[in-house]
Amino acid sequence: MNLTILGSGTSVPHPKRSSAGFWLETSSGSLLLDCSASAIHRIAQEDLDWANLDAIWISHFHLDHCGGLPAFLFGTKHAPDTQAREKPLRIFGAPGLRKLIEAFDSADDYKLFKQPFPLDILEVEQLEKFEILPGIEAAALSTPHTDDSHAIHLRARAGTTFVYTSDTGYTSVLATFARRVDLLLMECSFVKDKPVEIHLELAEAIQIVRRAEPKKTILTHLYPVWDNVSFDEEVKKFSPGFEIVEAFDGMRFDISDKLKSKN
Ligand SMILES: [Zn+2]
Ligand SMILES: [Zn+2]
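# zinc ion complex -> structure
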């Protein structure tokens, strides 16, 4: 599994950090984790095959995670690149996902559900196992962020495991959910003194890493307060004893291999 970070930022416009979007390339297809408005253009910028994207996971309905979905569907409906496409695009998310897309669709005469190819909307319950791509088993965990927010756990046939927390407040259950995964992609909105309960600050993220013992951790969803500090210095203060790296837009990571950067 190869991960490309499209957006390591938040809802706050930022010159270097797009809003949430993560592209996972696997031997059985491609998966987009969250779809912010800026992420859909970042996919093209990273030269990823958006016209043949197989599946999308929407972690929750905040616009920095799903605001690009209607725009992407508007694009696939009209783009020359997708007119001959026959395979379905499957969109997974919490109950309410279909209603959300219908709400966008009803704002004008978009007809987003009428695509050149089949469009499947699949609403999943937490901890119910489902196949997100052929041979890749997924399960979602409800998180303390919004009523519809979920972390997702993926397991490939070869045994590779990956967790994307998306936005979340602190809960020790996340550490159990991400226990010993190959890669933990976790939000870490704030450095310290977080202003809200529904996000993580560094001390909490490190607490989850210590309990989960993932092989590697990438911290993402970084608010602009992170611009003013050295990520590595802040992490070092906790001597976490685990590899924890800062996400940046354009970072590529082979989950079974080593961290690669295009810069
Ligand atoms: Zn967010
Ligand atoms: Zn959110």
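# post-check
Residues 257-263 have pLDDT under 50 and may be disordered.
The helical segments are 39-45, 63-66, 69-78, 97-106, 173-177, 202-212, 231-236.
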